[in-house]
Amino acid sequence: MGCSQERERIELKSTAFLVALFVIVNLSGCATKPSNEQSAVRPPSTPSLLPQNKPSPQTAKEEVNPFKTELGRNLMLGFFVKPALKQMLHDPDSLQDLELISAAPIKKVPGSFKATVSYRARNALGALVLGQQAFTFTPNPNGSTGTDAWIVSLAKN
Q: Looking at CB atoms within 10 Å, which of 7, 41, 61, 115 has the fewest?
């Protein structure tokens, strides 16, 4: 097995681990901190044998903000922004200093976000230059999870 094949195998395992971690954190709700309106200590819920009433439409689906926590920001950068950015670069292996500048919800499209990142990469002349790019994140309408959970595209200015 060659060195590059071994590296690809290790990267694939670490990617699978991070995707699983991302899904577990988002499903368990561990990634969210309680707001001022919510109590930090919640009484334990007791399962009921009686049929449960459906929650009201307002509380049925809490909006997920993947940029709310540091873990979420790092996962979004690693799994969604970095691959999309590497497809655009002249020298994809030269990508350095990828950093999230801002992330905010898009009010016109519920559940979507606009994120702006800065990075350094080599241009066509070989010089290391600073770049900035904005991306939009739209939830996948198919309800996919993991790396298919978001549709990433370049943001329109």
A: 41
Based on the number of CB atoms within 10 Å of its own CB, is 116 exposed (0-12), middle (13-18) or buried (19 or more)?
Answer: middle
Count how many Cα atoms sit within 13 Å of the Cα of residue 157 in the half-sphere of its side chain.
4
Q: What is the 3-state secondary structure (H, E, C) of the chain?
A: CCHHHHHHHHHHHHHHHHHHHHHHHHHHCCCCCCCCCCCCCCCCCCCCCCCCCCCCHHHHCCCCCCCCCHHHHHHHHHHHHHHHHHHHCCCHHHCEEEEEEEEEECCCCCCCEEEEEEEEEECCCCCEEEEEEEEEEEECCCCCCHHHCEEEEECCC
Q: To which residue do tokens 């979420």 refer?
A: 72
Q: What global pTM score does this model have?
A: 0.57
First CA to last CA distance, the chain: 46
Higher pLDDT, 105 or 52: 105
Q: Do residues 129 and 119 make contact, with C-beta atoms less than 8 angstroms apart?
A: no
Segment 44-63, tens digit of pLDDT: 444 444 445 444 444 445 56
DSSP annotation of 146? G
Closest to 134 (Cα-Cα) out of 153, 113, 115: 115
